[in-house]
Amino acid sequence: MDKSIHPLKRLLRYGRVYRTRFWAATACSVLNKIFDLAPPYLIGMAVDTVVARENSVIAAWGFPDVTAQLVILSLLTLVIWGMESLFEYAYGRLWRELAQTMQHDLRIDAYGHLQELELGFFESRSTGQLLSILNDDINQSERFLDTGANELLQFATTVLFVGGTFIALAPGVSWLAMLPIPFILWGSIVFQRWLAPRYADVREKASLVNARLANNLSGIATIKSFTAEGFERDRVAYDSDAYQQSNRRAIQLSAAFVPLIRFVILIGFTATLFLGGMAAANGALSVGTYGFMVFIIQRLLWPFTRLGQTMDMYQRAMASINRVLNLLDTPIAIRSGTRLLPEHSVRGELIFDQVTFAYAGRATALNNLSLQVPAGKTIGIVGTTGSGKSTLVKLLLRFYELQQGQIRLDGIDISDCDLRDLRRCIGWVSQDVFLFHGTVADNITYGTFGAGRAEIVQAAKSAEAHEFIMALPYGYDTLVGERGQQLSGGQRQRLAIARAVLKDPAVLILDEATSAVDNETEAAIQASLRQITQDRTTIAIAHRLSTIRHAHCIYVIEQGQIAESGTHAQLIQRDGVYAGLWRVQSGEVVGA
C-alpha cells in the first residue's frame, strides 16, 4: 500500500470487515447527539407556549389548550431523554467493542506478519521498537476509536443540526453567529498540519525509550557485572528526556488551540446575544426563538473548545496507525513454495550447489560453495569464527534467501518447498539456546506439542537431561524462568537437544550443541548422539573437534569456501588446517 495515503484512509481500508459495526456505531452517535440537542428546542417551545398560548407552535398542531400543550411537552421530554440515554449506551458499547476488536485484530495481524518476515528485518531493528508498535501504537489507535471517533461524529452532527436550525429560524442573525466557524475549522486544519510531524516524532522517541529499556532488562546481568548501573541510568534518562522534550513541543502547540478558539467563539456568542435581542425587542423574532437561540448557540460553539483535545488525540492516533500499517505493509521477502513434503517421506539427502551469499552491507559469507550430505549420514563442519558455518544452516532453513546457487533436499530445490514442511523436517539445536518462560516439559515439547510424558522423558534421557531434571524442585513441571535463566548453560543446551530429538526430524542440525557442557557430560551426550544420529542426516557444526571426529565426512570452511574435506583420519594425515586445529585442542602430535 502507498504509504503517502492518509493514515485514516489506510485504517478504513484495513477495517472494511467492520463496516456493519462501524455504521451502527456511527448511527447511534448521531442519533444520541440529535436527542441530546433536543432539550433547548423543548425549552424554546415551552417559553413559546407560556407567552403565545393559543398562538404557540404546539397550538398549530391542533392543541390550543395550554395544559394540553404542556402535557405534550412533558411526554416529548420523557421520550427524548429516554432515547438519548438508550443511544448513549448503544454508541458507548458499540464503539468500545469495535475499538477492542480492531485492537486485537491489528495486534494479531501485525504480530503474525512480523513472524513471516526474514531474519534480516529483525537484525536492523531493536526488539523495543517493535514492541512499541505492537503495544503502545496499537493501544493509541484503540483509545481514539474508543472515544475520539464518537466525539468527531457528534461534533459534526452538532454543527450541521444546530447550524441548519439557525438558518431556518433566523437567517438574518444566524450568519453572524456562525461567522467564526470557518475560521475555527481553518485554524483546526492548520493546527493539525503543524501537529502531525510533532506527534510522529513523539512516537519515534517513545520507541527509542522502549528499545533502551528492553535491551537493558535483557542485559541486566552484564550491567551489574560491569557496575554500569549509573551509566545505563544516564542513557535511559537521556532517551526519556528526548521523549519528554518531543512531547513538550507537541503540547506547547496543542495547548494554544483552546484559548484561541474560545476567543473566536466569544465573538459569535456576543453577536447572537446582542443582535438576537434587538430582533426580539423589535418584534422580528419571538421571545421563545430568542431564548432558544441564546441557549443553543452555546451548544453549537462550545464543542469547538473540545475540538483541540479531540484533534490532539486524533493526531496521536494517526501517527501510531501509520507505524502499525507500515509494519503490516512491509513486504515478505521469503515466500513459501508450494511443493509439499509429507511427514516421514523425507530421506534427508542435501546438496549445496555453488551457493553464494552475503549479509546486507557486509562481505561475502559464502562464495560458490558446494557440498553434499548423503541421506542418513553425519557430516561435520569446522572453521574459524565468521567463516560461514552457521550461515549454511540459516540458508538451509531459509532464514535468508540465496543470492546465487541452489540448495536441494532429496533433489527438490528448497525454494519450491512449502516453508513449514521444510522447517518441520529439520531439527535445529542452536549454539544460542532459547527457552521460553514455562515448565521444562513445555520447552521440550515446543514444536511437538502433542507429545506424551513418556516420549518427553525418553527424549530427555537421550539428551542426558533426565537426571538433572529430576533433581529440580518439581521435575519436568519446574518453571525455567524467562529465557531459561534459572538453568545453567549446559542444562539449557541439553533441553534444546531433547527438544530436537522429540521432534524426530529427517535432518538434524547440531550447531555447537555441546559447547556449554563439561567434558564428562559431553562424553555422555556424544554417546547418546551416536544413537540419535544413526540413519539420520546430521550436520554437526563444532569448535570442539572431538564432537565430530566420528562423522562420515568433515568439511573445513575458510572465508566462505571449503578448504579441506575428508574423514578425521584423512584430514589428520593431510596435515592441513584441520590437523593444526586438532593439534591445538588435543595436544597430540600429528602422525603419532
UniProtKB/TrEMBL annotation:
- State the membrane topology: Multi-pass membrane protein
Q: Where is the ABC transporter domain?
A: 350-584
Q: Which CDD domains match?
A: ABC_6TM_exporter_like (cd18565)
- Pull one GO CC term from this UniProt entry: plasma membrane
Keyword list (alphabetical) reads: ATP-binding, Membrane, Nucleotide-binding, Transmembrane, Transmembrane helix, Transport
Q: Does the keyword DNA-binding apply?
A: no
- Residues crossing the lipid bilayer are 21-46, 66-87, 152-169, 175-195, 253-275, 281-302
Give the protein's recorded name: ABC transporter ATP-binding protein
Organism name: Romeriopsis navalis LEGE 11480
**Taxonomic placement:** Bacteria, Bacillati, Cyanobacteriota, Cyanophyceae, Leptolyngbyales
